[in-house]
Amino acid sequence: PSIVIQELKSRNKRQRGLKMKAINSNNAPAAIGPYSHAYVSGNLVFSSGQLGVDPETGDLKEGIAAQTEQAIANLQAVLEAAGSDISKVVKTTCFLAEIADFAAFNEIYAKYFTSKPANVRSSFAVSTESTPVAFLTGANSFSLSTSNDKQLSNK
């Protein structure tokens, strides 16, 4: 068989052995829909979005600074439950209700995401008339699992 066919067969064998594990953290707000906080697949963690909601009270924090701090704390809790942490984040997608809040958001974000080179980030201002402005402040991420560092270093 050709090299391409051999590679496809080899890749299919590896993919069949790839396990996915759903992650839910007791230290982040419960999911409000039919989804998990994160999934671990191989040495990758894919997290769902986290808002500035206090997991103990269920209340949305007041103001962009408090919401950003809480959303990042919630994300950190999810990443830790998945065997990762903020320092391993490769990509984030951040949503802001008001672009005017970007500077305040960015200042807090920079305190936590300190890896060099910096992670990849997409930030968007989004809002709807039916959604409270502050409700849309949140972030999700794609990160590496620290439990698989050895596996990463062998490649």
Structure overview:
The two termini are 26 Å apart. This protein has four helices and seven strands, in the order αββββαβαββα. With 155 residues, the chain is α+β, with helices and mostly antiparallel strands. It is 31% helix and 23% strand. The protein has helices at residues 3-16, 64-81, 102-112, 149-153; strands at residues 20-23, 38-41, 44-47, 50-51, 89-96, 120-125, 138-144. Strands 1, 2, 3, 4, 5, 6 and 7 form a seven-stranded mixed sheet that branches. Helix 2 (64-81) packs parallel to helix 3 (102-112).
- Can you write the helix and strand succession as a string? HEEEEHEHEEH
Beta-strand residue fraction: 15-25%
Calculate the terminal CA-CA distance, rounded to whole Å. 26 Å
| Biggest sheet layout | 7 strands, mixed
Class derived from helix and strand content? alpha+beta
* H/I helix tally: 4
Q: Helical content, roughly? A: 25-40%
| Total DSSP E strands | 7
| Overall shape | globular
Low-confidence stretches: 132-138, 148-155
Roughly what is the average pLDDT, rounded to an integer?
78
Q: Tell me the radius of gyration.
A: 18 Å
Layout of SSEs?
Blueprint: H1 3-16, E1 20-23, E2 38-41, E3 44-47, E4 50-51, H2 64-81, E5 89-96, H3 102-112, E6 120-125, E7 138-144, H4 149-153
Parallel strand pairs: 5-6
Antiparallel strand pairs: 1-2, 2-3, 3-7, 4-7, 5-7
Short description:
This protein has 155 residues and is an alpha+beta fold. It contains four helices and seven strands; from the N terminus they run αββββαβαββα. The chain is globular, with a radius of gyration of 18 Å.
